[in-house]
Design a protein that fits this description.
Helix content: 25-40%
Number of strands: 11
CATH architecture of the largest domain: Orthogonal Bundle
CATH topology of the largest domain: DNA polymerase, domain 1
Radius of gyration: 21 Å
CATH class of the largest domain: Mainly Alpha
Largest sheet: 5 strands, mixed
Structural class: alpha/beta
Shape: elongated
């Protein structure tokens, strides 16, 4: 994840997220490899980022950029539908609200992604200074990004997906072959996994759940994918 920030003192560049669950899994599994989650902080960048963090006193700096961009588009547009959407967006921005916090239907969102106003991206305003870890958590929450894990002796790995993702999407995050040949997944919660020696014991205790393609990942799930290609 790339996070643009403005009006805040944060380190620029790549930062490792201090993930307590990953650390606990690493201590438990003693893997040969651990793959943590990294973000990249970019100062005063709103375009080529996945989320935006602002001090609340600098919100207007972002909204004014969007207002200027959408007003220019409105003045050139000959599409009544687009003009109506632009008027709606400008009213929201002039009320000092980022577009990500407003309600749009799917068609409007599709059109807005093409227009690419900055504040349609997950935009979080904070009242004061943030440590990097807290800033990352703020961006994760605002963008509805959740973590699941794969854990074992070879590797402990944290994976990030949008909240509400199905298990096949998660499988594809690990490797496209796992999604293409998906059969089922075995799922255990983080808390249950920490109480047992491993997946075999979890299965004996009935803590390991076999799920199909429609399963929606829950934050902290530990998964094992069964597939055939």
């Amino acid at each position: 994840m790339k996070i643009g920030f403005h009006g805040l003192e944060l380190p620029e560049g790549k930062i490792k997220y201090n993930d307590a669950k990953l650390q606990a899994l690493e201590q438990k599994c003693q893997p040969k490899k651990t793959s943590p989650y990294f973000v990249e902080f970019v100062r005063d960048e709103f375009v080529h980022v996945d989320a935006i963090l602002l001090h609340k006193d600098t919100l207007l700096d972002l909204l004014i950029l969007d207002i200027e961009k959408l007003e220019t588009r409105r003045d050139r547009s000959e599409d009544p539908g687009e003009t109506a959407l632009l008027a709606k967006c400008l009213a929201i921005l002039e009320a000092e609200q980022p577009l990500c916090d407003a309600a749009f239907d799917d068609a409007e969102l599709q059109a807005l992604r093409a227009l690419a106003p900055a504040s349609i991206k997950p935009t979080a305003c904070v009242a004061g200074a943030l440590e990097p870890n807290a800033a990352i958590e703020c961006a994760l929450a605002k963008s509805n990004t959740v973590f699941f894990y794969t854990a074992g002796k070879p590797e402990v790995h944290v994976w990030a997906v949008p909240g509400g993702s199905d298990i096949v999407t998660c499988a594809g995050k690990i490797h496209s072959d796992l999604a293409r040949g998906f059969i089922r997944a075995d799922i255990i919660t983080f808390d249950d996994y920490m109480r047992v020696h491993g997946l075999a014991e979890a299965k004996q205790q009935g803590l390991l759940k076999a799920v199909g393609r429609d399963y929606i990942i829950q934050p902290g799930d530990i998964i094992e994918i069964h597939f055939s290609v």
